[in-house]
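Question: does this match?
>
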Amino acid sequence: MRIFAAVLLLLLPLGALAQPRQYAILSLVGDELVVVQREMSTGSRIDRNIQVRVPLGSASLDRAMLLAVDEAVRRADPSAKPILLASRDPKFYAAAARSLDGGGSAAVFEAVRPIVANAKATHLILVTKHRHRAMLRLRDGHVGSGFLEGLGFYIDHGEPGRAGANLNDSERGFISPYTYFKVAVIDLANGHIAAEQYVVGSNAHTVVSGSIGNAWEALSAQEKDAQITRLIREEAARVVPMVLAKG
């Protein structure tokens, strides 16, 4: 009988023997916004961007990311009941920032093990910042200079003093929320990164003729908040199913 039972186990599909996945989700992207202003030196094609880092006192953007990833997981797997983890500990964000220069998701995972250990999950979905060359999506392609990372806004003030219907989007100027982040699925049993995928998301808004030279004011404070939150949801909905399928 024992031999017969063993044979039955061998005949079962692999999926029947696998432990159902329990996901925990942790986001480490919402400690700051980076406002990048494109600058071009006079008489040169060399781009020199000005970056202003704005620390965030609340966890609103990390919360938005957690909810967006949670929604995407539940859509991909209706039986899933993800565990949402939250931590504003500066050392975790510092570890995530260092990983941009080397170590990647594996290095961040080692830093956050203490808050994941008691989550009663089989896999961690870890969201961290990603650094990539600026690629802001406009109607006629992508533009941008330098590198962007995390969450923020890219501003191109256009060419003040110019007007007319024939100006292209770059000449008119634009403001673009951007979301540059990475989603990794980590097997908590062995710390192996099962899959990961980065996101380079943006949604540019060109300025009206009378506002050329002041792209920052093309969106109100409420619109800026709504736009970046919307972009987080859209990009999470797109990338999470891809990562789950790979991992």
Q: What stands out?
A: The first strand starts at residue 23 and ends at 27.
